Amino acid sequence: MVLLPQTDQLRALHTVVRDRNASPREFTFYSRRIIRLLLETGMDLLPFEEREVTTPVGQTYRGLGFARNLCGVSVVRAGEAMEGELRDMVPGIGIGKILIQRDKQTKLPDVLFQSLPVDIADGQVLLLEPMLATGGSTLAAVEVLGKAGVTEENIVLVNFLASPQGLERLGREAPGLRIVTSAVEEGLNEQAFMVPGIGDFGDRFFGTTPRAVAS
Questions:
Q1: Where is the Phosphoribosyltransferase domain (predicted)?
Q2: Residue 102 annotated among the catalytic residues of the structure
Q3: Which residue among the candidates 33, 36, 102, 169 is catalytic per the annotation?
């Protein structure tokens, strides 16, 4: 697990997005700044290959080339908040989606929909999942990727907030998974919400409020 350096700047960004009175515009803007830091760090965990180029003065620069067959997979809906920054960083990147909902009776994650790039088994995957509380949804997403031929070692989980319980569970049940997060929370409350927390990330990022559906 890689934790972003807890700089004063990062703490200031977290102070804005954790504030319950932050406007939707503030939340989205400052969240995107943190997301960019997470993605840059996640990209650094990917494999690189040696590559030489000729500079404008005719000299050879011995550098590195980015990993090939890279794709992103977002856990709908909060994970979609990370897609824009990833597309800006890697133009043309393929992005898959996995929709997971917690069953009201069993409390277990239920995979409702998945759409993955056809060549996903041949490359590296950035799994976009901002919230890691109990770890159930993340493990369900890893299982979906595994069935598609992606090994844990080829997955980097890009995560905004993580609980100690969720990290411990992933370490036990998906030991090959690499994780990048910007903060490790104090823990979970009785409702399994992270504390001090940030609220519903998807609703706050996209400016929506859940509404009851009439039966």
A1: 5-208
A2: yes
A3: 102
